[in-house]
Amino acid sequence: MKFVDRQQIGAWFKRVLANMWHWLGRIQRRFQLVRWFILLVLTLVLALSAYFTYQAKTANVENIKSSLQTKTTLYDEDNKAAGTLYAQKGTYVELDKISPNVQNAVISTEDRTFYSNLGFDIKGILRSVVNLIIHRGVITGGGSTLTQQLAKNTLLTQKQSFARKAQEIFLAVQINKVYSKKDILTMYLNNAYFGNGVWGVEDASKRYFGKSASELTAGEGATLAAMLRSPSFYNPIDHMDHAISRRNLVLDLEVEAGHMTQADANAAKKTTLTLRNTYQSDNGNKYPDYFDAVISEAIKDGVSENDILNKGYKVYTTLNQTYQQKMDNTFQKSWLFPANAADGTQAQAASIAVDPKTGGVLAVVGARGKHVYRGLNYATSMSGRSPGSTLKPLMVYTPALESGMHYDSELSDEQQSFGKDNYTPTNVNGVYQKSMPMYQALANSVNVPAVWTLNKIGLQTGINSLAKFGINLNKSDQNLAAALGGTSTKITPEMLARAYSTFANGGKLPETHFIRKIVDATGTVVYQDNSENKTIISKSVAKEMTSMMIGTFNYGSAMSGKPSGFTVAGKTGTSQVSWTNAGQKDEWIVGYTPDVVVASWTGFAYTNKTHYLTGAGGTVKTFFKDEMEGILPNTAQTSFNTSDAQSIARSTGTDNTGSSGDGDVWQNVQDSVEKGVESAKTTIGGWVDGIKSMFGN
């Protein structure tokens, strides 16, 4: 019975399938589905071909050669050349300056049909399809001609995708139409990467063999060609055995391609690779952090990264090379900075110098340690860090003066709570007085008077004042704690330098910028900075604020950071860690004269219980003092139009700080001790570094 049922079921399925097939046949004959499908596929192919052809024809293929031969030059504030920007460019040489030993090795290895193909190779594409099937849809690369590789390296990203591969093929065809095979091979060899930071066959020849590309032997030429597969794996400096093995394979491929006899190949295999480095970088990127910031600003201003790197522009910046060199020198003195964490992690730091009259950035160092191309620049880009008391002059004391208070107005310093949330600020030293004058509270960075003043003038008044200086607090940060830097709003040294420029510039807020203008190879201005200063406070308020902030360096919280022989105004700021009273997360300082504003910061990239500022080593004040003592002698040394508020108060008989009680005495003792300790750290650190250098460590 079961057997009969199975036969019946099978017969039923056959009838159903036959009927369906018959029905599909009728539909196909009536509506011509196969033809429509073929037409749809052909239409899609035609549309994609038209799209990629259009992209290829509008891709500035004609500019590839000139872009490889030219470098963008940066000029400083005095229009003197300061360096060059370039991407993947070495010393460009023509094909007759490149040994045939290299040319033949590269063609035999990378593209045997180079002189006959149309920019792409059908066999290579089919191999790529086979690899795609073998690797289950994963694009593994390979199968590209020299022309395709040139297109990828100069016009496309390194991302592997079907669309990018299609673009590569169509661009290769266009390149093949525009340039001769000689030009294509020349551009490829000058653009190829050979490891160890060297681009182009000429510089690679000097880096590995100490000679020009025109002098390379068969074995040396094969060695360079071998590196193209994987420069890190096949370069003879790091992996001599891999380099020799791959070299010998390349020599055999040259024999197969007819570029060399077997006897010559065998002779080349027996030669020893003698390494010699005569390569010298042109050191065009002398100020990497500054140049990176220029690139970032150019992109923000509408100039693409590719254009700024490859089109031979002239970029006129606001750089002061002397200031930059002095700042760079400071950052080489490790003893001036906080000690490393127990695991060796280096404390980070950043500084920026700004012209208060124009907002032009004169110098910048964005981080300590090895430079990373367009990596995190703490001077211009960090966020989420508390700026500490650096906000007090901007959010509290400036609007207080504008509200009718004066530099010598008495402010409450009694321990107390504020607002509906009973916010209770504390003074760092734990000492409280009944009251103190504003200039003393600011200079010594006393917390309670600042919060009391902000509460008196109104929180919103302080928020609005801060916004005038270019710092807009997040909604969650709009509370009285912001007076002490209790914020998560993005605030950078650049933003603080800009804000404090207002005090140095008679109440006018400038726009910070690195670029004055960008000019292309034809002389056309591609970008022009048209930023203007904006008056946000009166000259009298700016002057009064400066007089109070001179005290910060004369006798206040920045006394140990005062540059010797110079009058500087400004403010310090710290943010404490939560697990101990003897550690900081961040340290800040902003100092200015009428000629320059410098803002500096230090802290760990990631703060936790094993990575925080313990007080060991240097502080933000020690390296700020050093960089200012390098920079200020090279300024116009313009004097302030005011003097220290404390001295003004004494001359008018309103100063009562001399008999203000134990709190003030204790503060003076602390300041004196701190200054002595910082001086000792700097001196001892210099000795230690000197001893290390004697032993080559």
TrEMBL record:
The keyword Oxidoreductase does not apply. Residues 651-664 have a biased composition (Low complexity). Signal peptide: none annotated. Residues 635-667 are annotated as: Disordered. Keywords: Carboxypeptidase, Cell membrane, Cell shape, Cell wall biogenesis/degradation, Glycosyltransferase, Hydrolase, Membrane, Multifunctional enzyme, Peptidoglycan synthesis, Protease, Transferase, Transmembrane, Transmembrane helix. Residues 83-252 form the Glycosyl transferase family domain. GO terms for molecular function: penicillin binding; peptidoglycan glycosyltransferase activity; serine-type D-Ala-D-Ala carboxypeptidase activity. In the N-terminal section; belongs to the glycosyltransferase 51 family. NCBIfam families: PBP_1a_fam. This is Penicillin-binding protein.
